[in-house]
Amino acid sequence: MMTQLSSPIAEPPKVSVDRYRGAVVEDLQLPPAFALPFTEHVSRVIELAFEREFSHIPILDKHRKPLGYVEVASLKEKWEAGQMDPNDKVEKYLTKFKRSSSEPYTLITPLTPLSELEEFLKSNIFALVTDYERKFVLAVATSDDIKEFAKRGGF
Hints:
This protein is α+β, with helices and mostly antiparallel strands. The protein is built from four helices and six strands.
């Protein structure tokens, strides 16, 4: 009599599913970044932001590296409340990017997978898309950009 040995059925390996099918930031086709120097006057920042309908503007240092950003609505409120001089430099009102060993910089480039960008945007208002050396701000990405891409692509 022959006995047949039964072997347990192996479960297939768990594979993370990329709902964006390998799409990267570059596939969002974002417009070129609009950023301003830290020396720009608040009045000019507000004017340029409203012309372009931007809610947040990256602010750059003298070497064109990102220092932080300004929230346009907040600037406008302070101006209308008389809490600032329109000739003040924008550096006085910027929110600086946190860079420390406990909060490392998250590099977002044109080749960053959209799934990684989506995860980053769960805890951030926007992402600066830079080159690999973080020398140039190439674009600004938001959750709305990903949603629009998903809608267009049927994801």
